[in-house]
Amino acid sequence: MTPFGRRLFLSALGAGVAAPVTTHAQRAADPPNNPDVAIIGAGVAGVTAARALMATGKCVLVIEARDRIGGRTFTDPTTFGFAFDHGAQWIEAGKTNPAMAIVREAAAKASLDRSEQAIFLAGKELSKEDYARFEKIAQNATRKIEEVLKKLPDFVVGKLLVPQDPLERLAYAMMGPLEQGVENGELSARDFTRQPEAEPQYSVAEGMGAMIARWGAKVPVKLGARVVRVDSTGTQVMVETTAGQIRASAAIVTLPTGVLATGKIGFSPQLSAAKRDAIAQLPMASFNKVALLFSRQVIDAPAGRNVTGLTRKDLAFDSIVRPANREAALVFVGGALARALEDEGGRAAVTFAVSALAEIYGNDLRGAVAKSHATQWGKDPYATGSWSVARPGHADKRLVVAEPHHDRVFFAGEATDPVWATRVGGAYASGLRAAKEALAVPALQRR
Length: 447
Ligand SMILES: Cc1cc2nc3c(=O)[nH]c(=O)nc-3n(C[C@H](O)[C@H](O)[C@H](O)COP(=O)(O)OP(=O)(O)OC[C@H]3O[C@@H](n4cnc5c(N)ncnc54)[C@H](O)[C@@H]3O)c2cc1C
Hints:
The protein is α/β, with parallel strands linked by helices. Helix content is 30%, strand content 19%.
């Protein structure tokens, strides 16, 4: 079992999605000024929509604020001697996850994740009995949530699951902060149970971000252009960016809900009150990664082991030690701890990660850190967090964010998918859906 996968829970719900034909008539180097469809954001949703529209012969332009494509997928292939994905890394529920279509289209090879999980409390590994108890706690927690959901439309997970001891604290932390990026006190039971089971879980050796960059390389993208306004009051949609205006018959907006909620992108006419409220009810979760490279062997564990625990200060973390057989580690933090470490800034997250591992593998490790990097997705102005989470009582708002605006402006992005939200698979499925919606615009059918 590995991080970012809903373990031990529920059966898969999603259905496979047909892969678009990839006949790219356009060249990435030659972006059109007046495309049929302007797509805002070159993450997985934007690239998917672009590829699907290009496959039907439509002319598209993706407008991206960063100087790269991929959005919340990004691989650093060199610094640590293994592919370090700052964002998405795994494809969970691989039998039904729409993201497996990307693997096929990119002709990548997905490997099944078989890493074993070791659990530690205050530096000490669980006894055999405690492992069995831990498993039971997790299973009972899921069952209890499902039982209550039969009677209530939704509730706050933290009100039902109140930990009585460290083992329960860790088991529940693995559902909320380490899994969803929010504390259980903010977690919607309905939004949580919507998600398909994590297993089987896959990854690609080149890194998810590298695969997405390769797969999206032929899509025409205007990089370094931040969208500030989308005006659909005229006959065409006018997209105003920091690098000029683009006019199109339709637009697809794929921005994270946290970015939309800042209000820095104006819409004419204004988004409906229902849509603005729905965006506000889907704030961004906090989940960050710390990569550590050691100058010598300091971790006595098999390559790729998933180590999860509560520190002596009762702080929950997840990690992969010795990834790709390197003297390295990836430490994951979520929820309030991730937010606090990001707010503290400097080396706070790295210090936490090193201390958490030193409690298990010994203090020798502290002096052996040769390289480190901590992600800060919350401070990233083009992400504002890791993924969308529904506030309790608002899981259905994903469909409201997905609704078209003014007939010619469509919405995609992980937050808008009713099943696969939060994940790459949700972004992919939403991109296909929005492309289909855009194709129904009369001006596009005439071409
Ligand atoms: C740390 C972390 C770990 C994760 N792990 C996993 C995992 O293992 N498996 C998984 O399935 N998912 C994972 N995810 C979630 C996954 O990365 C996202 O669900 C998915 O990448 C979202 O794609 P998207 O296209 O919806 O949004 P994005 O990738 O955010 O794309 C939106 C694009 O819009 C751009 N943009 C923003 N503002 C503007 C503007 N004003 N003008 C123009 N462009 C703009 C952004 O730069 C970005 O490129 C993880 C995320 C994080 C942060």
